[in-house]
Design brief:
five-stranded mixed beta sheet; 25% strand; binds magnesium ion; 42% helix; alpha+beta; binds adenosine-5'-diphosphate; 367 residues; single chain; 13 helices
Length: 367
């Protein structure tokens, strides 16, 4: 029995190794190329990359110094010959070359870590709603250039809905609001398609900027963007809470030029964020206004589902519930919904084939 057991184990080991090396589909990937964060899901393994969309480049020799978290730690601290670049702005690729290099870095990292040879993976990648053909093609080309064999596209809110396990293929209305770093995407989904939607370039990044502005206007204090973001996450809120909390913000005094520290309250930060949050709420309301009544009835019953990192801002669901008079819930692990959705598409391709967006490759007839 003992021998038998060992034999089975070693047989299983060798088959899994065989699959690792020669498995045609084993390294297929789902990718969420976000303005703030890039995530990669690998079939049978789950999420293997979850890092900021930042690349640090040495301009003297054009070499990549760091990617992801390591590059983020360099933001605002680089000497002149090093640039920390964010290749996406407002959800779309703004620096093609850097975006492609970042993707290639992550794809190669996945292969290195699994000791597999480099079978060119098929990639399912999310794209924001409402982008142009040219912007879609940039995403596709970046993925192809980074080593993909085929690229399949999916609308990010659709992926977020799938990742949140919402019944997107049923004849029932589901409203998903993905509030990320660069964009807020609002979509009503029914029968596997997006019925009504809005996208706005107001999300976490704009909120950070509003905190920077607030510090400058109120205290003549120059804040770094990272400090502003940390303050937002620490004490920011969207809806008045019982407990008012405080935090210190550190920056440079614009008058003396010297370091300065100011204590602010969560109420003050809410005021600073109010403008951006109001725009998000108005966009949700106006999407509901153009949604067919039967679907609105479904949404009313099922509630709005929030995804994306900025849905974690304290009081966000409460505010939307209060303003739209509809129940609201934040999805489980909202930062990973989109990539988990692309992963679910990979794992069950036949079931989700119809929710994919037409690729520009088809239009070009290259497949
Ligand atoms: P993207 O899809 O654009 O890459 P993400 O969904 O990854 O964006 O979300 C990133 C944004 O979420 C950032 O702007 C970040 O500041 C914000 N964020 C993350 N955690 C929190 C939190 N706890 N409270 C408020 N904002 C948050
Ligand atoms: Mg996103």
């Amino acid at each position: 029995r003992c021998f038998w057991g060992r034999g089975v184990v070693s047989f299983m080991r060798s088959t899994s190794m065989f699959n690792n090396i020669f498995g045609k589909f084993s390294r297929d990937m789902g990718v969420d190329l976000g303005t703030a964060n890039t995530l990669v899901y690998v079939r049978d393994r789950g999420i293997v990359v979850n890092e900021p969309s930042i690349v640090a480049i040495n301009t003297r020799n054009d070499q990549i110094l760091a990617v992801g978290e390591e590059a983020r730690r360099m933001v605002g601290k680089t000497p002149p010959h090093i640039i920390a670049s964010k290749p996406l702005v407002d959800g779309i690729i703004s620096d093609f070359e850097v975006a492609e290099r970042m993707l290639r870095y992550f794809i190669e990292k996945v292969h290195r870590e699994s000791f597999s040879v480099f079978p060119r993976p098929q990639i399912v990648i999310g794209i924001p709603l409402g982008v142009t053909e040219v912007e879609i093609k940039a995403v596709e080309d970046a993925a192809l250039g980074a080593g993909a064999r085929h690229v399949f596209l999916i609308d990010q809110p659709m992926a977020a809905a799938i990742g949140s396990r919402l019944p997107i293929q049923d004849a029932t209305g589901t409203m998903i609001v993905d509030i990320g770093g660069g964009t807020t995407q609002i979509a009503v989904i029914s029968l596997g398609g997006v019925v009504t939607w809005r996208t706005l370039k107001v999300a976490g990044d704009v909120m950070n900027n509003h905190i920077v502005q607030f510090a400058r206007d109120q205290f003549n204090l120059l804040l770094g963007e990272r400090t502003a973001e940390e303050l937002k996450i620490k004490i920011g809120n969207a809806f008045p809470a019982k407990d008012v909390i405080e935090a210190k913000m550190r920056g440079r005094d614009l008058i003396t030029g010297l370091p300065k520290e100011v204590v602010v309250t969560s109420d003050q930060v809410r005021e600073a964020l109010a403008r951006s949050i109001r725009q998000i709420v108005e966009a949700i309301k106006s999407t509901i206004e153009v949604t067919p009544p039967e679907l609105v009835a479904d949404i009313y019953e099922r509630g709005i589902v929030l995804t994306g990192g900025s849905s974690l801002l304290r009081g966000m669901p409460e505010l939307i519930r209060h303003e739209a008079h509809i129940p609201v819930q934040v999805a489980d692990d909202p930062l990973t919904c989109v990539v988990r959705g692309t992963g679910m598409v990979l794992e069950n391709f036949p079931a989700f084939r119809d929710v994919l967006t037409a690729s520009t490759q088809y239009a070009r007839g290259s497949r």
